[in-house]
Amino acid sequence: MHSELRELVENYPDLQPLAAEAERACDLLLQCYRAGGKVLVCGNGGSAADSEHLVGELMKSYLLPRRLPAERRAALAASVSDGAYLADHLQAALPAISLVSQVALVTAVANDLGADLVFAQQVVGYGRAGDVLVAISTSGNSRNVLLAAQVARAQGLKTIGFMGRGGGQLRGLCDVALCVPHDRTAVVQERHLALYHAICGALERSLFGD
Q1: pLDDT of residue 210 exceeding 90
Q2: SS3 73
Q3: What pTM did the predictor assign?
Q4: 26, 64, 160, 189: least CB-packed within 10 angstroms?
Q5: How far apart are CA 209 and CA 61, in angstroms?
Q6: Which alpha helices (DSSP H) does the chain contain, by range?
Q7: Structural contact between residues 32 and 131, judged by C-beta atoms closer than 8 angstroms
Q8: What is the Cα–Cα distance from 107 to 103, expressed in whole angstroms?
């Protein structure tokens, strides 16, 4: 087991039943990134904020330095006037897109197609076989998230779900189902934060650690 997940269950004993599933989430994401894929993330309300937060941890350094590979630094330094600065300061990224943040697109889809399609339409556009959809829903029954997960399955994406107790309808659409054993939304969201931080730490160490 990844050391970050061992630390997670030490700090949150109630998440012990999810340890093996969290390990599977790490492995699925590692497989995606090593194959050149990307991650799409969606959720509503507090879970929308978690979508943005998760993407922030993936797209730049979280706990470890992520110096660009030598060949990319050299290409920057040799090709543009600010290349040396860019090569020294930019960080390697794990490609991830939050589906909640494109206001013009989201409102256009909601107005022209239907509010329940705001995430599904983006999965159609961005998703490729081998990518991963991270679907966050404390109830597991958010219709716009369910439709996104259905499109993901049809297009050959894998889905990791973050849910509350039972998992709702979303559980059956997930390749990895992280169902926090609580009912209160605030408690579920707190555990989601701890889970994805541990997963991000394990990913980063696996891909950028010594």
Answers
A1: no
A2: helix
A3: 0.96
A4: 64
A5: 12
A6: 3-11, 19-34, 46-59, 70-79, 83-89, 103-112, 120-126, 143-154, 185-208
A7: yes
A8: 6
pLDDT at 8 (0 to 100): 96
Question: In this predicted structure, what is the pLDDT of residue 202?
Answer: 97
Residue 128: Cβ within 10 Å count? 11
- Predicted pLDDT at 150: 98
Q: Are 46 and 185 in contact (CB under 8 A)?
A: yes
Label residues 77-109 b or e (16+ Cβ within 10 Å = b): eeeeeeeeebbeeeebebebbbbbeeeeebeeb
Q: Give me the percent of the chain exceeding a pLDDT of 90.
A: 99
Contact present, 180 and 18 (Cβ < 8 Å): yes
Class of domain 3-65+93-208 as given by CATH:
alpha beta
What amino acid is encoded at 161 in this protein? Answer: G
Angstrom distances, CA of residue 162 to CA of 168, 170, 173, 174, 181: 11, 9, 12, 9, 11
Identify whether the C-beta of residue 108 lies closer than 8 Å to the C-beta of residue 85: no
